[in-house]
Each structure stands twice: as C-alpha cells, then as structure tokens.
Structure of NADPH-dependent curcumin reductase CurA:
Amino acid sequence: STQIHLASRPIGWPTDANFSTVTVELPELSEGEIRVANEFISVDPYMRGRMNDTKSYSAPYALNEVMTGGAVGRVVESRAEGFNVGDPVLHQLGWRDVAQGDASHFRVVKDIPGLPLSAYLGILGMTAFTAYVGLLEIAGLRNGETVFISGAAGAVGSAAGQIARLKGAKRVIGSAGSAAKVELLTEKYGYDAAFNYKDGPVREQLRAAAPEGIDVYFDNVGGEHLEAALDSFNPGGRGALCGAISVYNATEAPAGPRNMSNMITRGLNLKGFTVGNYAEHYPAFMADMSEWIAQGKIVFDETVVEGLDHSVEALIDLMRGANTGKMVVKL
Ligand code: NDP
C-alpha cells in the first residue's frame, strides 16, 4: 500500500520536499480489524499547523509517519462484526490508498443517492459541521441579524453563508479572493453581498457592503479581515474565531488588530473554538443538514484533485485558494 509521510517540517510554505511517498507491506487482518480501500482523502488548512512542532489543540504530525486526516472508502476485507465488504466508512487514517486496523477507528456511513462519498468530508462532515457550530453555538446567531463570513467560498464558508440564512439571518455578506468566487457567493450560495478582498482594503469594502454594521462575524481568515470586522461591528456583536488562514504560512507573527478596544466600547464578544470540542452537537447538525440537502435548500461544491500522488499539491493549492468549496483528493 502507498502512503504519504511528512519527511521534514516546512518553514513558511510547504514544498514537495517536505513529504515522501512510501510503499508498505500490509499484514494479514487480525480478529476485530478491517481493510478499507480509500476513495477520497481530505486536505484541510489545519494540517499546515500540525506540520509545526508546536503545542496546539491537536498533536504535531510525527516525522516519517503518515499524514493523518479525514478519509472515506469502502471495506474490502473484514474480520469485525458490523462491517461488511462494500460498506462505506469514514476514518482519520489519512493519506494512504489502503487503510486498515481495528474497527474502532472506522465509522460506517450511509450511501446517500445523488451524493458522492466525499460529502462526508465536506457538506455532511467536519467542515460544514464547523460552520454550524461556529454560527449557532459560538456566535449565537439570532433571527434578523447581519452576518459577515470571510473565506466565504471555501468549504466552511460556503456552508456558513447558507446555514446563516436558513437559521434566520437577515443579511449575509461574504468575502473571497476572486471575481468568480464573489459571483458564486451571490448567485449560488445566497449571499446578499460579496466582495473580493484583493480589490481593496477589507475595512472599506465591508463598510460599503454592510452600511448598517454587522452583528456576527465568522472568521476564517484573521489579520486584516478581523480588524475590518472589529470596525464594522454593531454594539453587542459576536465573532466566532474559526481560523486564520492568512497567517498559516507566515514566517513572522502578524500584527494584532489595532482596534481591539472596540471590544470594550461596543461590548463585543469574540470566541475561538475547535470543532472537535463540540461533538455533542453533531446529531443536531446531521438532522438539519440531511433535511436541507434532501429539500434542495443547500448547495455545495467540491474541488476534486485526482490521485494520491497529488495530495501535497492539493493541500498547497487549497491554501492558495485554487479550490471552491471542499478540496478533496480522489483515489
Ligand atoms: P477553505 O475551503 O476555505 O480553503 C481555504 C481558503 O482560504 C482558500 O480557498 C482561499 O480562498 C482562502 N485563503 C487563503 N489565503 C487567504 C488569505 N491570505 N486571505 C483570505 N483568504 C485566504 O478551507 P476550509 O473551509 O477547510 O477552512 C476554512 C477555515 O476554517 C480555515 O482557516 C481553517 O483553518 C478553519 N477551520 C477551523 C476549524 C475549527 O474547528 N476551528 C475546523 C475546520 C476549518 P480565497 O480564494 O477566497 O482566498
């Protein structure tokens, strides 16, 4: 079986040289184990953080070990009860063509007509769940509010804009990094207004898109976007700090927002979160999301890169903004 390992820790942007492709001989299955042929693996921004040897919410990747992460595939051999050949499963064993081990590492999912298995990595998986938790549990979105979402055309962001609307937001504003993405935001994902953050200062573009201010900010980006949101917040505004992709590959710490004192004068509440700590909300998410998808109330995109050997390229492209919606690698 083929695996992609982290070979060295990148400084700044990762390159091919930081990874290695390794072929391993898989042992026979023991009692209680299954073997899975992966169909899609996930590439996610958090993986960049795990390449650094620093303390974070998830342990750093070990050198010369597999790049772990979300993946879906089908059981090809089973010595475990409850797992049959052909069953689709979700797991966290990451960048490899074949995953095997104790059945406890795998969760059987349902084949849903019309949906690719990769949906369990995106719209029915970690990224859309993150959008759901961030808006509802962290920011406490209320009916009639104005919401601003950065990284709005990505996996988390494209779900967040639609969830905000479905959960009662009055006005949803998004930012993204190209004209094509900005058009998608308003034409496909139901955003009321959108702008390209590369067109000019975020602060001014946000002011123009939200002349009456924002009540909720869903931050995927950090940096200039966070400062702009602090500028546009209405009194009592709340921010869900989800990610800071603008600084993940930076080699120097960015300046903090210069207007943090708005938090005091406007009584703002900014709260960071990592979705893994909110698993108790997963059933509610699945119930809502399954219904929205079945009723055609939510749409999603995936950017699919072919071949395990293109995983590194897919991850780097994701951080450069080559994706619309969820970036996945198809095996
Ligand atoms: P996306 O699908 O949004 O892909 C990343 C996107 O980031 C790119 O498409 C690109 O879009 C955008 N981007 C890259 N550089 C910049 C920049 N300098 N400024 C603004 N945008 C930039 O990824 P995800 O949906 O998986 O993740 C989105 C965010 O959510 C990330 O910050 C991630 O770390 C975070 N996250 C947090 C979780 C949590 O538990 N807290 C869980 C999952 C994700 P563009 O073309 O618009 O620039």
